[in-house]
Amino acid sequence: MIDGALVVDGHLDTPLRMVDEGLDLGERHADGHADLPRMADGGLDAAFLAAWIDPAYAAGGALARCESLLGSIVEAARRHAGRAGLATDAAQVRALAAEGRVALLAGVENGQALEGRIENLERLAALGARYLTLTWMNSNEWADAAGGERLHGGLSDAGRELVDAMPRAGILVDLSHASVETFWQVLERVDRPVVVSHSATEALGPHPRNVSDDQLRGLAANGGLVGINFFSRYLAPGADEDPPWTAIVDHLERAVEVAGIDHVGLGSDFDGMPAPARGMDDVQDLPKLAAELERRGYGPDERARILGGNWLRVLG
Q: Class of 8-315 per CATH?
């Protein structure tokens, strides 16, 4: 916790290191951005650990790769049960936090993990996955990606079926990486909140991965949220790609101004990007955000919503 507020990060890519490098989440590491000791030092109560699927797995093995990554999260929770636990809903996050344990949540990044079969959603849900990012940088069989090839003009027919099936599996639709057409077609189709787990605001960072003011208003009308990304290139693309960590708060504020206080959270992208904003070196620096929000006039309840309360609301 930070100043009594539960803190939730909507996107860390740490499972890649856990599987590919043998990283033990329970040990303190000098490199990377996250591990359980540093999470404790930074007041991080819960984190969505993402199972990212490289587009190269489109040729085969995507589901097995995803299950391996999700399995690493389950195993980390088992091995370090005194300090962490697997969570799949907001009540479990709160219960773990009350015990002083970090809640490990799971997300899947890139719908190619399903290998074209909607029924595989149930396999991912059984391993704890609670959101699915429809695309990555590449368009796929389900939907078009931001900056990717325009294959479907948004969702494919199969993608529409997938979006309809996700609530039944208990999996949130994540629209980070989605094209603008995909974004709006999903919002027209769903009757539950969606998330944009790790993006920034286009108004302050004009980049295809970021969301426009219109999209922020759409998220607010939907009841969803955007998790602000900490990647320097998204926060300040172009001339200044080495912004200070306060740029994260600039984007948080912009999203609050447009979407409202209930629709903004954290989505750092730690361990999934090369260069976070200067001075936001890893999860230990999260208290800086709370202090800066307070300095800018945000009260305890407002800070609590941004730092984690909004993620808990959407997770339900």
A: alpha beta
